[in-house]
Design a protein that fits this description.
This protein is mainly α. It is 40% helix and 0% strand. The structure holds heme C.
Length: 95
């Protein structure tokens, strides 16, 4: 799941805002640290937020020019969302 998720994160939209290394850009937050703007960082919460996205009015980071669309603006399936969420989960739950 994690390897599949890694292979989804990079070609999908995610890296355009969250960075190739998922350390964040002006368009999207760091997903590696253990600080979360929107969620508590649990796996189900990651699945939920990637599915729904984050509307502009709810975004906390001031620099973000765009909302995060549902599914990151992609047509990822529910299964692919679960895979990419597993990948994101492991990024922030290292060591
Ligand atoms: C257009 C830019 C953009 C794209 C594309 C995008 N995101 Fe986001 N993402 C954001 C923004 C902005 C936030 C909210 C940050 C805030 O509230 O400060 C966010 C929040 C998140 C969060 C919650 C982070 C937190 O700190 O609470 C996760 C997890 C996440 N995105 C994963 C993904 C994944 C996985 C993809 C690809 C399927 C993706 N994002 C695609 C911009 C983007």
């Amino acid at each position: 799941m994690i390897a599949v998720g890694d292979s989804i994160f990079h070609p999908a939209s995610c890296q355009r805002c969250h960075g190739m290394d998922a350390k964040g850009t002006v368009r999207g937050p760091d997903l590696i640290d253990d600080k979360w703007a929107q969620i508590d960082g649990t796996y189900p919460a990651i699945v939920a937020i990637v599915t729904t996205g984050v509307p502009k009015s709810k975004i906390k980071m001031a620099s973000a020019p765009f909302e995060m669309k549902a599914r990151g603006g992609t047509n990822l399936s529910d299964e692919q969302i679960r895979d990419v969420a597993a990948y994101v989960y492991t990024l922030s739950h290292h060591s």
